[in-house]
């Protein structure tokens, strides 16, 4: 059996289902690269469960999936524990389908995802979210403008956009860095999608004791004093229902 185990965003969101699954598998990996939590880590889980956990980077789960398939072939059950939900904004579906196609049982245990958490806390209509996208660090000085295109496309259809922020080699991108990249995209594209008056919602350290969800304009966000990462951003569509306008006022 191969278990994908969602841990939720923080200790207080661990479910009984996730704890039971982590206790029963023969080999347990903790995915250390698709997301991060303010208080769940390998040491905490090892103490809670009284067992050994292997920290897994991208190459362990994506390039060397044969090692996991080998464990399954030997008759061992394997668990992959992920912060948030294991199937939301991750690439684990590839390993899940590979195992399933080879005849192994795949069990998914959902966890509270940052995706649902920020939609809930923003109070925006869940029916009005378009495609999500990740703002990534420039590679070889080349800036990927996909987030700009996605915001533009969603906005043109009256839909909100969730922006995940890059997590490169354990370095989580801050909302401030993401906003300056969005402004650089605006300079390249010049389509007036990201302006100083554009409204955004910033979620900081969601699920932690010091979490904050705040609505700001881009110019306010550039001056804002942020908490530690992780951060996430929503770019709401301009086509807001009057209840969404009221909801946004509560986040100022
Ligand atoms: C690619 S997504 C993975 C989402 C995860 N699978 C889940 O379901 O929650 C990871 C990104 O979401 C955002 N994020 C994750 N946890 C967060 C938190 N507790 N508070 C704010 N943003 C968070 C960060 O931008 C982070 O880089």
Residue windows where pLDDT falls under 50 for at least 5 positions: none
CATH superfamily of the largest domain: Tetrapyrrole methylase, C-terminal domain
Strand content: 15-25%
What number is the mean pLDDT? 96
> Which sequence of SSEs, written as H and E, runs from N to C?
EHEHEHHEHEHEHEEEHEEHEH
Catalytic activity: 2-[(3S)-amino-3-carboxypropyl]-L-histidyl-[translation elongation factor 2] + 3 S-adenosyl-L-methionine = diphthine-[translation elongation factor 2] + 3 S-adenosyl-L-homocysteine + 3 H(+)
EC number: 2.1.1.98
Pathway: Protein modification; peptidyl-diphthamide biosynthesis
InterPro entries: 4pyrrol_Mease (IPR000878), 4pyrrol_Methylase_sf (IPR035996), 4pyrrole_Mease_sub1 (IPR014777), 4pyrrole_Mease_sub2 (IPR014776), Dphthn_synthase (IPR004551)
